[in-house]
Amino acid sequence: MSLLVYVENTDGKFKKSAFEVVSYAKAIAALTNNTVTALSIGHVAAEELTKLQKYGAEKIISADSNQLSNFINRAYAHIIADVAKQQGAQVIILSNSFSGKGLAPRVATKLDAALADGAISLPEIQGDNWTLTKSAFSAKAFAKLSLQAPIKVISLNPNAFEVQENEVSAQLETYESQIPAADLGVLIKEVVRATDKVSLPEAEIVVSAGRGLKGPENWGMIEELADVLGAATACSKPVSDADWRPHSEHVGQTGIVVSPNLYIAIGISGAIQHLAGVSSSKTIVVINKDPEAPFFKVADYGIVGDAFEIVPQLITALKAY
Ligand code: FAD
Predict the structure, then answer these.
(1) For the chain, N or C: smaller number of CB within 10 Å?
(2) Which residues contact residue 134 at a Cβ distance below 8 angstroms, ignoring those fewer than 6 apart?
(3) ipTM
(4) Crossing angle of helices 307-320 and 220-229, rounded to 10°
(5) Would the CB of 289 count as within 6 Å of ligand 1?
(6) Does ligand 1 have an atom closer than 6 angstroms to the CB of 284?
(7) Is 56 in contact with 26 (CB distance < 8 Å)?
(8) Record's InterPro entries (predicted)?
(9) What local confidence, expressed as pLDDT, does residue 67 receive?
(10) How far, in Å, CA of 39 to CA of 81, rounded?
């Protein structure tokens, strides 16, 4: 049995999640004595494709055509399911990213497979019965999913599994089959990137600020801190509701869920709805002038003080570092 992994790219460069899912598949392959096949869709140069062998992909299949240069849910799902059938793959793994959230259920339906979406653990394997953990109820609980169907689709939460090097020598193949016209119904002609900044859902470091910042005119220091750290910026809901920041930065129960290595919360109280979107971050640093702010209860490091004094000092110290 081979494990099939769908690896995402942006403008021909693999995302970090691509290396995460290959590493994750390799760990499962070691448990089950299997091989890992990676599937890339869209134009990715051979040199970039071969990077996947560093993380354990023994076979790399590239589906490259002009029609596929932008993400098309139905066409991509068709290719993943088709390659899974061709390769006899019984486990299909992808990232629980923006596109992965749309692809995983479609692929599972096409293959009559069991689906674990948003997995955060390796499976516990007992024959055909695989048990996986995911977070539930806005990250306040964990759910155990038991996948019993012979074919399994697993979408892995970004940042839930460390990238691990496991060099092998890979064989490169191309996907040649026709894609049904119905699956190419909507073609994205052009994607115009609104910003060159680090993408929030995939960021390893997030600098986030809340109503404690008083107004949009004070976000300069938040952006500067993010720039120094190579981080994405985020905000609490009231901040985006008040149009201080764009809605694309709103994290929490009703916004984006992030799980970076480092989440820095500045002037955010730590309401339960905010924590729902950030509590799976590896390390949380809180800066708040109120020592009783609920955010301190979940913080790994806390600074009690005025953000307008602390953040500029932090920027100066980091620049000098
Ligand atoms: P506040 O609660 O006003 O907190 C501001 C904090 O800044 C305070 O702790 C204060 O001590 C601190 N502060 C003030 N001045 C300074 C200073 N100079 N230096 C340092 N600290 C300072 N919220 C979300 O964020 N995301 C969601 O997805 C979300 N979904 C929701 C869904 C529902 C159904 C509901 C009812 C609410 C939701 N909320 C959400 C809102 C949530 O309940 C809180 O109201 C919100 O998170 C508070 O935002 P805040 O922490 O920025 O503001």
Answers:
(1) C
(2) 116, 117, 118, 119, 120, 142, 143, 145, 157
(3) 0.99
(4) 30
(5) yes
(6) no
(7) yes
(8) DHS-like_NAD/FAD-binding_dom (IPR029035), ETF_a/b_N (IPR014730), ETF_a/FixB (IPR001308), ETF_asu_C (IPR014731), Rossmann-like_a/b/a_fold (IPR014729)
(9) 84
(10) 11
Q: Which candidate, 270, 154, 155, 260, places its Cα nearest to that of 205?
A: 260
Q: What is the whole-number distance in angstroms between the Cα of residue 95 and the centre of ligand 1? A: 30
Ligand 1 pocket, 302 CB below 6 A?
Answer: no
pLDDT of residue 198: 80
Summarize the annotated binding site for FAD as residue ranges: 211, 267-274, 288
**CA–centroid distance, residue 103 to ligand 1 (Å):** 33
Alpha-carbon distance of 93 to 274, in angstroms, equals 29
Q: At what angle do helices 73-87 and 98-111 cross, to 10 degrees?
A: 50
| Closest C-alpha to ligand 1, atom 35 | 273
Handedness of CA 65, 67, 72, 75 (dihedral sign): negative
Give yes or no for a contact between 113 and 3, defined as CB atoms under 8 angstroms apart.
no
Whole-number Å distance, alpha carbon 246 to ligand 1 midpoint, is: 16
Per-10-residue mean pLDDT, the chain, length 321: 92 94 97 96 96 97 90 95 97 95 97 96 96 85 95 93 94 91 82 78 93 97 96 97 96 92 97 93 96 97 98 96 87
What is the 8-class DSSP label of residue 151?
A: S
User: Ligand 1 centre and the CA of 239: distance in Å?
Assistant: 8
